[in-house]
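Comment thread on ticket #2218

A.B. wrote:
> Attaching the input chain for the structure job we discussed in standup.
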Amino acid sequence: MLSMGHEHTTPILGWTNVALGLSFILFDVFVSNIFGLGIGQSMLISAFRCVLQLGVVAVLLERVFATENPWAVAGIAFLLNLLGTFEIVVNKSTRRHHYMFPSVLVGLLGSTIPISILGSRFAMSVQPFWEPVQYIPVVGMLCGSAISGMVLTLNYLLRELQDNRDKVEVYLAFGATRMEACRPIAIEALKIALTPVINQMSVLGIIAIPGMMTGAILGGASVQQAAKLQMIIVFMLSSATCLSAVFTTIAVVSVTVDSDHRIRMDRVDDRKHGIWRARERMGKTLMILLKKLVCGWREKGTDTLSERTPLITGE
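C.D. wrote:
> Ran it. Output below, let me know if you need it in another format.
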């Protein structure tokens, strides 16, 4: 628990402040248009998603904090992991394998829930560990870090198994198990997943003041307590990222290399997710219907005009 180190009045922010903050995104869009980056629309969509999602989460968390119900806290924790799974499978992954949704969900739950419980109860000394004000933000941060690790691991493993399939098949041909054959790729994938966390820890404090510590200080907490809390959070993030990457590696290898030691790239799909393909088909269908409707109106207007035009016009 954070102790208050000094009296501090936090300014009350309104939607006007949010609108002013949005001007920074508009600047990014302007730069994108000037240099032809082509990401201006994505920035705007992401910004509005951010506003909508945080607004909804704020309403939900207010009610959960007020009730202090452990089942409500468990529901929010599961919902965060479920939405994180959807984000990984649908939006973030360039390739997908069979049974990816359940395997990612199990990996997220298996990495965020145990770490959050142990960290909150023992490292942060929160009693009970599910105290909503403390536990839910921790789970949210662990989910974000685990998602990044999973995406990096997934994309690297599936790409390497497709591009360097022959190397893995050589190991398999000489009698290696699927875990032994994929060990070099798996080691590199885990390194890639953990590199951002290592870089983050190395620059905290001297070069960068992290968001958690900044928020605690702005909220009026003791600087010493905020620093210790940030240390604990970062260590928990590294553990959750490592666990999620290990879960992902085991799942990918188990699916793409079967028990008969064959690489099954037929279980990997590099197309867009079915949701986006369905949306594109719906968009094309709507455009065709609109074109037919507009053409029909034009033809009807031309026919009406022709019927009203006299055959012989006098001057």
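A.B. wrote:
> Thanks. Noting for the ticket: The radius of gyration is 27 Å.
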